[in-house]
Design goal:
Distance between the termini: 24 Å
Strand content: under 5%
Helix content: 55-70%
Structural class: mainly alpha
Order of helices and strands: EHHHHHHHEHHHHHHH
Strand order of the largest sheet: 1-2
Radius of gyration: 25 Å
Oligomer: single chain
Number of strands: 2
């Protein structure tokens, strides 16, 4: 896939390709309520000899729960998402597991795909990228059609952190087909291509074109090293040297690995 060549002004523009809308698979727990209600009615009527009215009354709570389950799940999900936002704003990512456990109606009656996506998010914030990858993979199967971009992006990030660069590249390409201006995806696909030796046509260099240096000095240092490695891979030796000079000495293992690629 050849990255789009974009000017700096294009960053933040409206995506050219919108993700297809898909429907989430329904909760199996909710779908099981009606057969269970029918079973309770039959047992009450013919097993215990209850009147028809009493037998129907015995199954009515399960029918009612089936009807209101989507509302309960939606409210529970919104409470979790509010708590998620507040916990992340406070820098207390360790609270997320408890928040998700407390969202019982969402976990029981929410779409399996949506629940798995939240599990992936919680695992990712906890630094458990293997569990995050597994959860996002399950989330991708919980949709009638393409999974939402958040699921694909979460899976790509997990693969990137695990060093599974070929899988990360595949997922980042899908994300960038939907949102070609997403900076983090562009930087990470470039780095994954370089790490895996998959940058045969200078694709990494193209994805980094038009991106301005981050304001944060540490992020800017890593970005310069990444630009140097991408330029070297594209055969732009002069540009690679300029970026290396601007970056200075590598400050961590990641920067050292990028410098090695830039000097290869």
């Amino acid at each position: 896939m050849t990255p789009p060549q974009r000017s700096k002004a294009a960053v933040g523009a409206v995506p050219e390709v919108q993700p297809a809308r898909s429907r989430a698979e329904p909760s199996l727990a909710r779908l099981g309520l009606l057969p269970l209600a029918a079973f309770v009615i039959v047992v009450a009527r013919y097993g215990f000899g209850a009147s028809f009215t009493l037998a129907m009354a015995a199954g009515a709570p399960l029918v009612l729960l089936f009807a209101v389950a989507p509302v309960l799940a939606a409210r529970s999900r919104r409470r979790f998402e509010r708590g998620l936002g507040m916990a992340l704003a406070r820098g207390q990512g360790g609270e997320l597991e408890a928040l998700l456990r407390a969202a019982r109606a969402f976990r029981w009656f929410g779409s399996p795909g949506e629940v798995a996506e939240k599990e992936g998010l919680v695992a990712s914030e906890a630094g458990d990228h293997a569990r995050a990858k597994e959860a996002y993979a399950r989330a991708a199967e919980g949709w009638r059609g393409p999974a939402p971009m958040a699921v694909e992006l979460g899976f790509a990030h997990a693969c990137f952190e695990l060093g599974e660069d070929a899988k990360a590249v595949t997922s980042y390409r899908r994300v960038l087909a939907w949102e070609p201006t997403m900076r983090l995806a562009r930087e990470r696909i470039a780095q994954a291509l370089l790490r895996a030796g998959l940058d045969g046509e200078g694709e990494a260099h193209g994805w980094l074109e038009g991106l301005e240096e981050p304001a944060d000095e540490e992020a800017a240092h890593r970005f310069r090293m990444l630009r140097a490695a991408a330029a070297r891979s594209a055969g732009e030796k002069g540009e690679a040297k300029r970026w290396l000079k601007k970056a200075g000495k590598p400050r961590d293992e990641e920067a050292r690995a990028l410098r090695a690629l830039a000097r290869d």
